[in-house]
Amino acid sequence: MFDDFFIRALIAGLGIALVTGPLGCFVVWRRLSYFGDTLAHSALLGVTLAYSFELNIALSVFIISSLIALILIQLQKKTNLPGDALLGLLAHSSLAVGLVVIGFLTFIRFDIMGLLFGDILAVTTDDLIIIWTGGAVILLVLKLIWKPLFASTVNYELAEAEGLNPDRAKAIFTILMAAVIAISIKMVGLLLITGMLIIPAAMARNISDSPQKMVLFSIIGGLLSVLLGLFSSLEFNTSSGPSIIMASLILFILSLLNIKQSIKLKN
Amino acid sequence: MSSENSTLVKLNNAGFKQNDKWLVEGVSLTVKKGKIVTLIGPNGSGKSTTAKIALGIYKNIEGSVEKYTNKVGYVPQKISIDWTLPLRVYDFMLLTENIKEEAIDEALTLTGVIHLKNKNLGNLSGGEFQRVLIARAISKKPELLVLDEPVQGVDYTGEIALYELIKRISDTLNCGILLISHDLHTVMTATDHVVCLNGHVCCSGSPMDVAKNNEYKTLFGEQASQILSVYEHKHDHVHSDKGEIKKN
Questions:
Q1: Alpha-carbon span A165 to B108, nearest angstrom
Q2: Using the beta-carbon criterion (under 8 Å), do A154 and B95 form an inter-chain contact?
Q3: Nearest C-alpha of chain A: how many angstroms from B82?
């Protein structure tokens, strides 16, 4: 009925949505959307390195994104610059370095559009294994650090005082962010990954009154976005990333219509 | 001494410096099981800082903290919660520990806010929120309770009831309490040990000893001496003069 590549893309996309759902909630709660952008932009550098040294793309992106996150934490400690300036500095300089390196890699055929916006044709069986095993590990780790991470998201001092070690949870979460970007870059593209994290979670916020519900709706929203997005990508021959994000935007707009009702329920 | 086993947290000459300014220094105190230790002192005297040192929130401190329990309940003085989170009172009760539904209901009933259980945390009034904070801290049956002005914003009758509740909890759970309070009356009647802070420990001891201390009188002035009379009156059942009360 469908071509193999499309089935692969579906399996990949659904796997990604399962992971971006809960992680995206934390991105929204902890106000990390620019942090996500920064890691995603640095992913371009990771991709170019993967091509240069014939490494696995996901692994290379994971390493570079984690490295950028570490540099960010160090810069925050050692400079007086505000967080958003540091994020901008790292995002654009790593993007620039990545683009310059691409310029040197003239011997490789490079699909820059696919890199920026995702390419469902590019998903291989190996990628599926990476996405699903990587995704399972990410979700497992997130479950393990859920309590301290969530408690410190609500209030850092309460979490610290009552012995939950929020600093360790935060550091681990940073690595999870790098990992989710690494597994979803081929599919969604580096310019739109943060959208995949934020938009379903934002949609879920509009219709939830508890954290558990928000995570659940965020996952459902992500899955629906992938299904809708990929089918329309196939139908209208558009890039997979923008199609998925547009689908999630439509869901977000629909959730706005529901807001009045949910406010009524709360009171 | 068997009292060593009952020590929950011990500060040895502890202090904390921020931006080259000492917030508090040279504090030594011990909180033991079943005892209430109260910190008093003017604004900016380092009461909350001392509590945070005891809780291990501040790292890189001078001196040392020995903490012998991990079952801690904390009611902070200021709490800023981000309302991007959809959070009900019920979710908040489960924040740092998975406690049983009955324990949640019991704690919320004790602080008089059981009817708010499924309300969104962002919709509570200041006093209601304060009661939820206390309920959360006691529901996990902690060994050490740190209460930083726990009844702020609570109405007057509620205030008295909550202090009675705190006293009762200290007795029934046999937990140690580190209390920060501006209500000198409560401090002097319900506390085992008082530490009067003003950037350093200006005096400490039993409520009676502290009330008689001259530095304490200078810090709190008129109000302090009134409290002293209240205190003496309350315990003056053997008609002794001041000197004899001091022996008690």
A1: 27
A2: yes
A3: 7
| pLDDT value of position B245 | 39
**Are A163 and B73 a contacting pair at CB < 8 A?**
no
Domain segments of chain A: what residues?
4-260
Residue in chain A closest to B90 (alpha carbons) equals A210
Gap from B175 CA to chain A (nearest CA, Å): 15
Find chain B residues with C-beta within 8 A of A155's C-beta: 76, 79-81, 95
Predicted ipTM?
0.83
Please give the model's pTM, rounded to 2 decimal places.
0.86
* Chain segment A146-200, per-residue pLDDT in tens: 999 999 999 999 999 998 999 999 999 999 999 999 999 888 888 889 999 999 9
Best mutation site among B87, B117, B123, B180 for testing chain A: the one with the most A CBs within 10 Å?
B87
Q: Which domains does chain B possess?
A: 2-71+142-238 (3.40.50.300)
Q: Find, in chain A, the residue whose alpha carbon is nearest to that of B91.
A: A210
Nearest to A200 by CA among A159, A255, A145, A152: A255
CATH domain A4-260 topology: ABC transporter involved in vitamin B12 uptake, BtuC (1.10.3470)
Sheet containing strand B36-40, edge to edge, reads B72-75, B144-148, B176-180, B36-40, B193-197, B201-205
Across chain A, mean pLDDT equals 90
Q: Are A28 and B88 within 8 A, CB to CB?
A: no
Q: In a 10 Å sphere around its CB, with 0-12 CB exposed, 13-18 middle and 19+ buried, how is residue A22 labelled?
A: buried
- pLDDT < 70: residue spans in chain B: 1-4, 222-248
